[in-house]
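Dear colleague,

Thank you for sharing your sequence with our group. We've completed the structure prediction you requested, and as agreed, I am returning the results in plain text so they can be pasted directly into your records. Please verify that the sequence below matches your submission; if there's any discrepancy, let me know and we will rerun it promptly.
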Amino acid sequence: MSVARVTEISSASKKSFDDAVKTGIERATKTLKNVEGAWIQDQKVLVKNGKIVEYRVNMKVTFVLMD
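Please find the predicted structure tokens below.
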């Protein structure tokens, strides 16, 4: 039986929510081993002068602990 852990990650992109998720997962896998999935908890945008300038996500990343 495996044991998993969940860690919270925040990530941002100037392009899209999708890009913010990809950026966060790519960064998480540099540090965490056995990443299995992620739950997107929140999505936010940063607005300046009436325009979206940044997309932000908070996600919970699940990874399996090694024996």
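Summary note from our side: The chain has a mean pLDDT of 95.

Kind regards,
the structure core
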